[in-house]
Amino acid sequence: MRTIRDALAAEHPIALLGLVSTMLEIATTAGDTLGERHPDADTELVHSFADVDRLETTAALRVIAAITGDDQLRVELNAEVARRRPYPLPSWLEHLDAAEATAAIEWVHVQGDGDDIVIALDLPPSQSFTFVAYVDHNLHTLVKDAFALPFDLEGSLAAFRQAAAHDGSPGAEFRPLDLATARARIEGALALAEALPAYESETWPGFRPLLRWVLRLLPEGGTGYVHATWTEEQQEDLVDRFFTSPYAENLPAPEWFARTVVRSAATFGVEHGGDAMRWTPVTVEIIMTTWLPDVLSGGPMLLAQAPDVLQRFVEFCHAERDLPGPLRQETVEAIDLWRPVYEARRKQVMHEDMEQFLVEHWRQQLEILAEEVGGQHVLDTLQPISLPDEPFDWSVVAPEDRDVVATVVELADAGCEALLDVEHRTACRRLIALAAAGDPRTVFRRKRDPKRLAAGAVLAVGRLNRSIGAGQPVMVRELTEHFGLKTGVRDLERTILGAATAARDPSADAPPTSLAVLLTKIGCQRIVGEREDLLTRLVQAEDGIDWGNPGAS
Description:
Largest sheet: 5 strands, antiparallel
Radius of gyration: 29 Å
Strand order of the largest sheet: 4-3-2-1-5
Shape: elongated
Number of helices: 24
């Protein structure tokens, strides 16, 4: 009762509406993962409220009467509420039957992962709110979440924009949607969601009864989602186009196996999202972790090449769709991100020794991390120290390179000052100096755009310090936007790093310069944290402990 009383006292109606909706959902689907309705379960809940004549139960009955789809139950509940003493209910609750849906829009991602369908509602005499249903297109177009916002339509749109800006979400836009279409789309996606195990969030599936009520406020007659169909011939034509494109040149796998991977990827795209060419970080995660490891067969060395083939196919699809460069790069990076999980999953499918695989995997990850900073000794002895604000070292720059190097330094300085900080600026100056000393011919004596060279240097320093990239303080697209570039600079990042590590001290037989001199204090702390995490995981794997659950034994 206290929970209902608190919801009644809340500033906005969605507190009580959401609470009662969740109670109804729990009562009608208790113990059923598919969310199928249990006959008479909601009647039992209603009777428990009807047996107690209180303000709280009266308010709950009033909400149930308004949002139920059972006309007979609505009549009975309204009669019960009318029979009771006149409790001081909020005015909006007295007028809940007069609620009206006034507008709808959709928040659509350019890559098509999903849509937020936003419906504006008015509650007489003076309340309003918006109801949002998230429709996921990566899993057969189904409702994956639903929630309410205590704002009118304009306030909710502002909240979406603010959240997108905070998260760095690229390529989303609002589109107007007529109410009938909104109903048809959500109803179709809801029907599929109810046939599958429910995804759970703070408000879903608890707000499912409330969503059904909102849908009944919308007009019928709209058209639901219509996905383009892909015939087998169209899929095979896509495969053939890929293998006659430059993206299929020098593939790391035999063509027969590469064709198997590409056909499998196209089939996945059609079956899961209705589009063989739509590739996003989310679809990459799904195919790498739940599809390719299960459907492909072959030897370990052959299967290890599948992600590389997938990457080429994804790049081909993005090029044909003319997707913006930053979105392409984030998707491609997701393949590397999920590669360890793919490897683990395929090893499991092949019934190989998972414990030994994990030992080898974490050792390999440690080796990769050590190589990144200049060797195992360097990794073991890293000490986080702030980089000073130091000038560029012109002593290592050949006279013929001074003009182009000066331009690159100036542009990189401006990039660091706009996106990062003084430590990163020092690190970039050091990197450019190392490249000028190590292999200036490859970097500065070719016809290259100085803006791209500067962006490549900033990207190299930012990625080394875990400051730029997916999930980091600065997104790659922010970097490319600052430098006014339309495509990524990963190629120049690798070129500059290669030139820098070719630099040697004047003494004979000195090893290549360690990139640890480019680490900021925070960047060094992050790498030390990665080192300690990998060491812990390695010890757990060697001891046979579940690496995903450090407390297990």
